[in-house]
């Protein structure tokens, strides 16, 4: 097969992969078949490097927010502002990664945990004498996790949401 036809076919397969018209592993197989396994695309290497850097940033933000919330003597307002800022950043990175077909669990998990930390802290600040609000906030987070797990077929989110509900029910009734 001549090079022009191979280039047309590989571009079409890359389009299918980018727009999720075929599963990614099928597209990888077809690309390896038509390029004879000879070259890994520069954009693929760049995407994996970008994905790794964004994943490390999100894990760092999650660690920093836990540290700021539990181990510092900053004012409650400053802690809340920083954690909300980190949460917004992690959600933006998660949506960016999903839009670019990087579908990875790291941004989603980091965003979910930051949302949980932020919402629990906000409930403690807004309703300091009402522990029932913490239960409601935790239950809503678990419901969100189950919904996300069902929508995107992520078993880890479904399991986390269900286990969260069970722990919440045990905490409430014991």
Topology (elements, then pairings):
Blueprint: H1 3-18, H2 24-34, H3 42-70, H4 76-99, H5 105-126, H6 131-151, H7 155-173
What is this structure, in a nutshell?
This is DUF2157 domain-containing protein. It is built from seven helices and no strands.
Fold and architecture overview:
By secondary structure, the protein is mainly alpha-helical. It has 2 domains: about 5-35, no CATH class; about 50-174, no CATH class. The longest helix is centred in the N-terminal third of the chain and has 29 residues, at about 40-70. Helix 1 (about 5-20) packs antiparallel against helix 2 (about 25-35), helix 4 packs antiparallel against helix 5 and helix 5 runs antiparallel to helix 6. About 80% of the residues lie in helices and about 0% in strands. The protein has helices at about 5-20, 25-35, 40-70, 75-100, 105-125, 130-150, 155-174. Keywords: Membrane, Transmembrane, Transmembrane helix. This is DUF2157 domain-containing protein.
Structural descriptors:
single chain, 174 residues, mainly alpha, elongated
What does the radius of gyration come to? 21 Å
Helix % is over 70%
What is the straight-line distance between the termini?
71 Å
* Strand segment count: 0
Supply the number of structural domains.
2
Summed up, the helix count is 7
């Amino acid at each position: 097969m001549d090079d022009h036809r191979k280039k047309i076919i590989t571009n079409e397969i890359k389009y299918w992969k980018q727009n999720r018209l075929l599963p990614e592993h099928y597209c990888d197989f077809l690309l390896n078949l038509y390029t004879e396994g000879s070259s890994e695309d520069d954009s693929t290497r760049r995407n994996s490097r970008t994905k790794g850097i964004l994943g490390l940033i999100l894990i760092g933000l999650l660690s920093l927010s836990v540290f700021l919330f539990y181990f510092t003597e900053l004012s409650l307002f400053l802690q809340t502002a920083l954690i909300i800022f980190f949460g917004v950043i992690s959600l933006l990175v998660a949506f960016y990664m999903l839009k670019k077909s990087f579908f990875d669990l790291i941004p989603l998990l980091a965003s979910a945990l930051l949302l949980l930390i932020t919402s629990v802290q906000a409930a403690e600040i807004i309703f300091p004498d009402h522990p029932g609000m913490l239960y409601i906030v935790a239950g809503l987070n678990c419901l969100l996790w189950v919904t996300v797990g069902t929508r995107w077929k992520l078993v880890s989110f479904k399991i986390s949401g269900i286990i969260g509900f069970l722990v919440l029910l045990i905490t409430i009734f014991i």
